Amino acid sequence: MTPAPTQNHSAPKTTTRIAAGVGVLAILLAIGIIPRVLRDREAHSVVQASTVLLPEVTIVHPQMAPPSSSLQLPGNLQPMYSASVYARTNGYLEKRFVDIGSHVKAGQLLAIISTPEIDQQLNQARADVVQAQAMVLQTKAALQQAQANLDIARITRDRYAPLIDKRAVTQQSLDEANEALNARTADVSAANANIAVAEASLKSREANVSRLVQLQGFERVVAPFEGVITARNVEQGDLVNDGSNNGSHSLFDIAQSDVLRVQIEVPQSSALSIKQGQKAIITVSERPGREYVATVTRSAQSVDLAARTMLTEVQVDNHDGSLVPGMYGQIKFTVAATEPAVTIPSTALVIDKSGMHVVEVRADHTVHFIPVDIGQDMGAEATISQGLRGGETLVSNPSDLLSEGQKVSIAQ
């Protein structure tokens, strides 16, 4: 009888063992790989976080400054000449011929002052002159009489002198004739002295007349130069005093505005670049779109120690009268650069207790503070005279929290 075949129970067991081994291997791989992946992700996140935490800055690059630049400064337009016209005599204002805004010529009559006291003094002085003239004539007549007496005395003495030897006259008579001659000579000298005194008195009284005539001439108030009356401080009938009194005030103020002048305080950095005869442009807001060409006429040739500026004057033609003295304007100069310089935005400048500096971003993204000196402040931009060569990478608006050597990120 043939035996029945036996079943192979080892095959399923092998399969089960293989599956179990694969599962264990998968578990072991998972235990080793998953933490590593997690660590890699965490490290990547840390790197990303560290990049985000770096200060982010925007950058600018300095530009070379042009060989010339414009310098704009404020100034007040002033008349070329101005004067206050005072009375030179005491009296009251009889007539007034001008008012504010009147255009006058040099020597034009502005007002008349009535001075009755001076008129009377002049009449008295002229009478004194006539009296002094009569005195001179009287002393000259006395001189003629004294001269005639001298001639008689000399003739008498000359007659007696040869007769004394002939004993025709006595010695006493000759002596009396000599004494008479001496007396008449003294009378002539006295008459000459009296004439000198009378003539001196006449000159003094004539000088007094001239003084009063001049004072009387001051009754006519005239313009010292051509211009415009800018102030009238008196009215007809007002009492006026000469300018020697502290309490006196001017009758009129006059200004010549055909040519106006402007005095500007030029900064020391540009003072030596502005020369006499150089042109400048004046603009005023009341004349939009119009530019006036002015000329530099003079400067103080000295820098003010407190303001570090030099007083400079320009003059502008105003014959058309479009400008008015007292206006405020802007004066623009073209200034040549004295040495190469770079320009940067003013926002890139930092001013603190250590001074003025800019913040440079180096190639390794660290910052470095560079001390600088400003050559010219132009508002939105500034010219740097020392500290920069050009080509640097600067922080455009540095924060106060930045420190030397700090690492930053550059904004794209």
Series of H and E elements: HEEEEEEEHHEEEEHEEEEEEEEEEEE
Task: Give a quick account of the main beta sheet: strands, pairing sense, barrel closure.
Answer: 6 strands, antiparallel, barrel
What is the arithmetic mean of pLDDT?
A: 85
The dominant shape is rod-shaped
Strand content: 25-35%
If strands are numbered along the chain, what order do they take across the biggest sheet?
Answer: 4-11-14-13-12-15
User: Helical residue percent?
Assistant: 25-40%
Please characterize this protein's 3D structure.
The protein has 412 residues and is an alpha+beta fold. It is 35% helix and 33% strand. It has helices spanning 10-53, 116-163, 171-217, 268-271; strands at residues 56-57, 59-60, 63-64, 68-85, 91-96, 103-104, 109-114, 220-222, 227-232, 239-240, 252-267, 279-283, 292-303, 309-317, 328-336, 342-345, 350-352, 355-361, 367-371, 373-377, 381-386, 394-395, 409-410. Strands 4-11-14-13-12-15 form a six-stranded antiparallel beta barrel. A four-stranded antiparallel β-sheet has the order 3-16-21-20, with no helix packed on it. α2 runs antiparallel to α3. The model is unreliable at 1-7 (pLDDT under 50).
Quick tags:
about 400 residues, alpha+beta, six-stranded antiparallel β-barrel, four-stranded antiparallel sheet, 4 helices, about 35% helix, disordered N terminus
